[in-house]
Amino acid sequence: MTDNHYYNVIIVGGGISGTALLYTLSKYTDIKSIGLFEKYDDIATLNSNAKGNSQTLHCGDIETNYTLEKAIKTNKTATMVENYGKLYGYENKYMFKIPKMALGVGDKEVAFIKERFEQFKEAFPYMEYWDKAKLAEVEPALLKGRDENEDIAAMGTDKRWSAINFGEIAKSFVRNAKIENPDIEVHLSKEVENIRKIGDKFEVTVEGKHYFADYVVVDAGAHSLLFAHKMGHGEDFSCLPVGGSFYYSKVDSLKSKVYTIQNPKLPFAAIHGDPDIVHGNTIRFGPTAIVLPKLERYHHAHFLDFLETMAPSSEVIEVFYDLLHDDDIRAYAIKNFLYEVPGIRTKLFAKEVQKIVPFMTENDIEFAEGIGGLRPQVIDKKTKKLFLGEAKIETGEGIVFNMTPSPGATSCLGNAYKDAELICAFLGAKFDTKKFNQELTGEK
Questions:
Q1: Share of the chain above pLDDT 70, in %
Q2: Which of 156, 230, 272, 423 is most open to solvent, judged by the fewest CB atoms within 10 Å of its CB?
Q3: Which domain holds residue 294?
């Protein structure tokens, strides 16, 4: 074991989660020997890239599938990202204040928005209730072409840093980590092939070379569960990779992030419209949701890896049966499959867009080729349910595997905090939680 192949901590994956941990360890702990391995030639090329997500800082205020408890928890991690951006002057560079809202259409949904606003206003005092008249001022595109007898309302705000370029934030984590700790090593175009425990160390094999660490954190999206299964961990979890696509608006429409109300039966995001902050503020509508037999959206499919992470079993089959046995979920799955079929997809998806912007037709939108990502929805075999939220496999043996479905990138610093605590406790290192909280959570 040579010195240049040994680290206290190895991080596998150079997306927003892996780089957030690299930054947290570099700035707030006394751990000096840290190595990060990323298999592609740059940081944040997959789901953390601006093309692979909705560029939204999920605060829990407009995500109507969140309970109040989850919304409060999510808001805390979102605040960490906001404060990080302010700490380094990234306002209007990597994060932007774009008005955002949860929109209710029709009497039933308007009543839902009113009730939810009352429930959430104490925890989110900056949120406002916008009736139809106010929406005509805030976002007139919502009213243009709409039946005048159809009521709409929203809970929204223009006071939060709502749009984030997570890919650039990930790259900034690496730059700032190197300033705090020049000894860290970031290896690009280096794919981790295998991880195994040898005595009290971990051997990480990268293109035939062996690196060793006291502690390993795998932040590799759907591949995290693949590595876990290969090491005999997380066998109660199965991965359901769900791909999302988007459509671009060809015409000027929204100036705000407009989220629609989530069907509580559906585990996937409801359709929303967002100004694309890296595509000339073109409006993006989506995402769709379709199960794909691969672990990365736009790269070569390793079907055997997909099978390994799905780990088919009677429990997994039962979850699929329960999902597809429900009329709403079955109809949703069929619709989203059709939204991916050339020739018919644009006409069908236009109906989804019209709920938000009524005047838009199929001629006003186009399928956004190469835009979208893939999220590892985790199935808990014990409960026979989809696990909504971050999934962490903490072995207690010096290795952690992280998978981050919704709220995904928003939770990067929150997850990094948890992992830094685990790592420091395991290694006997110091974690300056007071400084972390002062700078990133605002707590003293």
A1: 97
A2: 230
A3: 3-441
What CATH number does the domain containing 8 carry? 3.50.50.60
Buried b (16+ CB within 10 A) or exposed e, 37-61: bbbbeebbbbbbbbbbbbbbbbbbb
Structure tokens at 66: 């969140």
Average pLDDT over residues 270-280: 92
Q: Given CA atoms 215, 394, 238, 18 in this order, what sign does their dihedral have? A: negative
Q: Are 247 and 286 in contact (CB under 8 A)?
A: yes
Instruction: Give Cβ neighbours of residue 170 (< 8 Å, ≥ 6 apart).
Output: 14, 15, 16, 19, 20, 43, 44, 48
Strands 6-12 and 209-218: parallel
The sheet carrying 374-380 orders its strands as: 290-291, 237-243, 374-380, 385-387
C-alpha torsion sign, points 39, 40, 41, 45: negative
Q: Which helix (H) or strand (E) holds 34?
A: strand 34-37
CA 290 to chain centre: 16
Structural domains counted in the chain: 1
Burial label for 139, CB within 10 Å (0-12, 13-18, 19+), is: buried
Q: Is 80 exceeded by the pLDDT of residue 388?
A: no
Report the phi/psi class of residue 255: left, alpha or beta, with left for phi > 0 and alpha for psi in -120 to 50.
Answer: alpha
Rounded CA separation 371/279 (Å)? 11
Please tell me the predicted confidence (pLDDT) of residue 1. Answer: 44
Measure Cα distances from 7 to 22, 42, 194, 387, 442 in Å. Answer: 13, 21, 16, 33, 32
Q: Residue with structure tokens 């790259």?
A: 171
- φ, ψ at 202 (rounded to 5°): -115, 135
Q: Which residue has the higher pLDDT, 66 or 404?
A: 66
The candidate with the shortest Cα–Cα distance to 407, out of 77, 151, 35, is 77
**What tens digit of pLDDT does each residue of 300-321 get?**
767 778 888 888 888 888 887 8
Quote the CA–CA distance of 371 and 91 in Å, as a whole number.
25
DSSP letters spanning 316-333: HHHHHHHHHHSHHHHHHH
d(CA 182, CA 428) in angstroms, rounded, equals: 22
End-to-end, the C-alpha distance of the chain in Å comes to 42
Q: Are the CB atoms for 224 and 308 separated by under 8 Å? A: no
Q: By C-alpha distance, which of 251, 226, 255, 221 is closest to 238?
A: 226
